[in-house]
Amino acid sequence: MTSRSLPSPELVEVAPGAFAYVQPDGSWMVNNTGVVTGGDGGYLLVDTTSTEARNRALLAAVETVSDREPRALVNTHHHGDHTFGNWLMPAGTPIIGHVTCREDALAAGLLAAQVLAGPDYGHIEVRPPDLTFTDSMTLHLADREVQLIHVGPAHTRSDVLVWLPEQRTLFAGDLAFAGGQPFLAEGSVAGYPAALEVIRDLRPEVLVPGHGPVRRGDQVGELLDDMAEYVAFVDAVARDGHAAGRSPLEVATAARDNRFAAWQESERLVGNLHRAYSELDGNPLGAPLSLAVVWPDMVAFNGGPIGCFA
In this predicted model, what pLDDT tens digit does every residue of 213-224 receive, in sequence order? Predict the structure, then answer.
């Protein structure tokens, strides 16, 4: 695969004691993570990343904030770009996630590295959450409260928001893509708008998306509006195509020239339509879809293998 030069990741303090580790350009497997510190010097890590090299660079950046071992790691969902570095955590560090995050991480294994096979992943292992919850959980880092709120199925079944109420700062995981199309094939087209409303109700002043630049102030609402308008577009196109008996690939190809086409990963439209069709067929929200069916259609829409530059 042809490589491309990307800017270096950057650890940015987005609120007092809260840091976003932003990895440009936010494309496939190039995600953001976070670090939340407490007054006692301890810290919480929000997600890991994809390749061994990227994960070791993340941990080196974290050492500039704290020289301690992490108190805990929270996975916002099960995808490999947010979990493939879990194995680098100390054995005594609890990994926290929604109960379905554990289930889906174990079921997926290293599949993401096999499907998006371009990068050198180095050594990676599956280490799922070992401390799980269903609806919500509150963590306390000395004087800092951190709320974990389950809002899936949306991007996946296991989506969790990491919310700092006093700092009004949100780590949104892949419920928010800044510059890329949301990916809902393993989540829910019907459930995604409800998850966005939970975020709106929190009224964050800072939002760290799972991919792309940090959003602040009015940019937060603009990003949420973009996400909501995108999923409304997917829903409308899916309903028309489903009623007409056309396949998700046919519908996506006919709708290729849309106002969201310039966003990264336009091939996600096909996967999102597969999810919408599943729901229109009456299947439960978040019901498993066969990647063996969805991914080839995405590749066909893309006109060839899907690039990954992690």
Answer: 999 999 999 999
